[in-house]
Amino acid sequence: MVKKDIYILGIESSCDETAAAVVKNGREVLSNIISSQVPIHRKFGGVVPEIASRKHIENVLPVIDEALKQANVGINDIDGIAVTYGPGLVGALLVGLSAGKALAFALDKPLLGVNHLEGHVFANFLVDGELEPPFMALVVSGGHTALMKVKDYNNFELLGQTRDDAAGEAFDKIARVMGLQYPGGPEIELLAKDGNPMAIDFPRALLDQSYDFSFSGLKSAVINYLHTEKQAGREINRADVAASFQAAIVDVLVKKSVHALKASGLKKIVLAGGVSANKTLQAELAAAVEAIGVTLVHPKPVLCTDNAVMIACRGYYKFLNNEFSGMDLNADPALKLG
User: Fold this and answer.
1) Which among 54, 66, 80, 266 is most buried, taking Cβ atoms within 10 Å?
2) Cβ atoms within 10 A of the Cβ of 330, count?
3) Nearest alpha-carbon partner for 23 in 65, 103, 80, 61
4) CA gyration radius, the chain
């Protein structure tokens, strides 16, 4: 008997991207549709939850239709509906989740509730066809920074996470203080290219031997530096500030990752989340782990940002494991990793 191909429809609406995708057999991307709200929220300097929810309502069905059309797959050919149910903005999550539940109910197909952060990790399966657990994962996004072991496709062990600000959150806040547009991470990275990463000695919170992170002290140090220089009437080299700030974040991320890899003995680490698109982080982490015999895998830029391909990929492995969700599944804005 020939094994039937499995088609998973993924839906993502945790923040300000309305996305839908169709993935075949977990790793073959047939479509990847993303409707971004960045231009809308940019004038506010960040995401406005109420506006994001309203735009999701407008976009979710057209995005799903386009994903099916681009994949050349009929709605009845879909085997399972994978949808993000947390973490994220509760109103935004509810839009995608409601659409996913309605489709699953109407089609009598399995509903697959997906943790958005696990989805980011699974984006790497779509980049490296040979990637298999176990491996280490460094998740770095606007709301989360964490290290975790991926023991198998459905078994994760959280080693450490941020105790306060996430790395991406720190990037956005400092960018806002410096007058850069939203989203701040790419703007800081662009400005840092012309700066000296050793110009200013900003603090690194390594928290002894733990795998936890803390970036609130660094954020405060940068803000205090900017205020002090301005009050003293000294000219501020913005590129040096950006480069030194970025270096402080990357340094901590790399050192924590190497520490965890040495302790675990794992030979692969994957980057996940929006900040994984940062080229300095990619280069420095790759060099550091290569020195200890470990390989780095990171997503392509389009899979670093919020997308539904990663949700469909995560959903596929839940489908194989019969991890189906009930129609009582609710949005969980504070859903934990692992």
Assistant:
1) 80
2) 12
3) 80
4) 20
